[in-house]
C-alpha cells in the first residue's frame, strides 16, 4: 500500500501556489500531479437541449456532471464560469486537458471544446435596395418601421449617446421582452437604455481567461461594460435598426439621412468582443443563451473564424448555439467572412444559419488625379483634403529605401503598386516617413484604404497605375496633383461581390450551398460613437439582412427560420436593382455565381411575398444530422430526447434547402424538395428551368396545384450529366411561377466521373 504526502511551496508571492502530490510506492517517489493555475483553460461543455425548464435545475445538473470528474460539488462550482441554462444546456468551466478528456466521455456530454478567439468580421444602403419609408405599401409601412422588432446583436458593444439610438417617436417596449440593461464602466443602465436600446449586457469570463486575468481595460481603450471601445458593434447595430438621423456624412462625403433597416426596431446588445483580443467563444455562447431567454426576434452575429470552417455541432460554438436558437424559432444571421476571394473560404456554414456575403452598391467616391501633362485620371478614395497644386511624383521601388531613410519623400507624391503584403508594408513605411500624398495601385480597388490618412490619397487599378508609371518613366520632372473626393450615386456605378467576401463551395458539407444571400457591405457609413465612419466587410452586410429579417418576423410571425431563409433566397435579385449583371471581384473578374452570393442580392420589398417557401422544421434538421453521419447518441443529446437514424441513412441531397447543390454527379441522380404555399390558396405553379451547362434537369410533376387542403407539395428533379470528364461546377436555376410570383433557387452541379474516394 502506498503513502501520500502533500508538499506545498509558498516561497514566492509572485508565483502561484503549487501543490505536488507525491506517492511513495515500493520505495520509489512518483510525482502524481502538479496542479498549477496555468494548466487550466476554459472549455465549453455542450450538453444539447435542456432537460429541465427551471434554470436553477439546469445549473444543478451541471454541478452534478462536473462533480463526477472533480470529486466535489464545491470544486465544480469553483470551476464553472458560465452555466448555459436558458436556450440550451451546457457550461464553460476551467479544466485541465486531462479533466476535459475525461469529461468528454461522460454519458450526458455531447462535446467538450477549448475556448477559442473569433474575429469581428448607412446613408445609401436601403435606398439602393428599395427599402423606402416613403413607400405607402412597403414593408416599412406595414410594420410601422419595425417598431415591434427586437434585434439581438452579439458584438463589441454600443455607444449609447449616438443619435442613431435615440428613441424619439417610439412607442412602449414590446411586452414580450424579458432582457435587462446592466450598468458598468461609463454605462448607466437607467440613463443610457431607452425605448430604442432596450437591452445591454457584457460577458468577460472568457476574456479574463485568455489574458490570464490581466486584461487592461484602460490600455486597450475599453470599458468593463456594454459601452463600445472598438466601434464595430455600434456600426453594426445602427445598420440593423438605427433611428433616422439627418445630415450625416464623412468629411463632406456620402451626405444624407442615416437609418437602419428597421428604423423603429429595438436593439439588444450583448457585448462579447473586446479590443485587442477579439470574441471569446464562452462569452459568445453565454450571449446567445441570454438572447434566447430574452425574447429577441433575430440574432445578428458579425463574427467568424478563418478557414477551415468549423463543423456544425461538435466544434463550432456559434453553430451549436444557433441550432438551439433556430429550434426555438429564432433566426440567426451570420457573416460569411472576409478572407475571400478564394474558393472554399466560406465561414458559418451550418445549414440552419443564414450566411451573408457582401457586395458593393451604386455609390463611389471618385478623385481626380491630374498629371503634369494635364491628363486627368479618376481614381477612388476617401480623400478629405482640398487640391493643393502640383507636387513631384515618384515611384515607390527598391531604389527608395535610402530616400525614405533620408526623408527625401516628404514633399513628393508617391505611386505605390501593392500586389502583396510586402509591397503594402513598404508603401505604409513611406507614408509614415512622410510624403505629400499617396497613390496606391491595386488589382482590385479598395477605396477605404485611404481612410484616416493625414495626406492626400487615391487608389487606382493596375491599368491606370501603369498609365501613371509610363508618365513617370517618360518625363524628366513628373508632376501630379490629387483632388478631393466627390460622391457619385446611381448609374453607371456597377454592383460587385466584394473581393474580401468569402466564397463557397462549403468545405464541411459540399451539398449545402453557402453563402445564402448577399447584401451591401462595402463603404457603409454608420455610427461608431458620436460620429459616423465608413467600414467594409461581411460584418456590415450581416445587419442589413438581420434588420430585414426583423421586419419579416413582424409581417409573418408564424414563419419558421427556414421559411424566412427561403423567402430571402427565392426573391433575391440575380442582377443589381437596375437590371445590370453583378460581377465578382477577384484575381480575375467574372459574373457572380451562387458560390459568390448564394441566391443573389437581398430584395427587401419582395421577401414578404415569396409565393412558395422551402420550409424546414425539426424533422428536416434531423434529416441533415443523420445524412451528415452524426451518430444516434450525439443527435439524442443535442435534441434532448432519444433518436435513431433510419437505415439506410437519408441523402443530404434531399435536405430541403432553397437550392440544389450536387458536388459529385456520376451519371444521374434524383433529388426531392417540398414547397409550402404561402400565397393565394388556389395557386397553380409551373416550372421554369435553366439547366447548368452540360446538365439535364427533369422536373416532376410538371404542375403544382394548391388548394385549401393542399398547402405542401413534394416534387422531384432528375439530374443527368452529359459530361464525360471531371468538371468544375456549372450553375443554373430552377423556378416555379404562377404568373405573379417567381420562386427561383440556384442549381450547382459538378460532374465526378473519377471519384476522390474509393
Automatic annotation (TrEMBL):
Location of the Inhibitor I9 domain: 43-120
Domain Subtilisin-like protease fibronectin type-III: 654-749
InterPro entries listed in its UniProt record: Peptidase_S8/S53_dom, Peptidase_S8/S53_dom_sf, Peptidase_S8_Ser-AS, Peptidase_S8_subtilisin-rel, Peptidases_S8_3, S8pro/Inhibitor_I9, S8pro/Inhibitor_I9_sf, SBT
Active-site residues (renumbered): 155 (charge relay system), 232 (charge relay system), 539 (charge relay system)
Entry superkingdom: Eukaryota
GO biological process, one term: proteolysis
Key words, A-Z: Glycoprotein, Hydrolase, Protease, Serine protease, Signal
Single GO molecular function: serine-type endopeptidase activity
Peptidase S8/S53 domain segment(s): 146-575
Family: Belongs to the peptidase S8 family.
Protein name: Subtilisin-like protease SBT3.17
Species whose genome carries this gene: Cardamine amara subsp. amara
Lineage, broadest ranks: Eukaryota, Viridiplantae, Streptophyta, Embryophyta, Tracheophyta
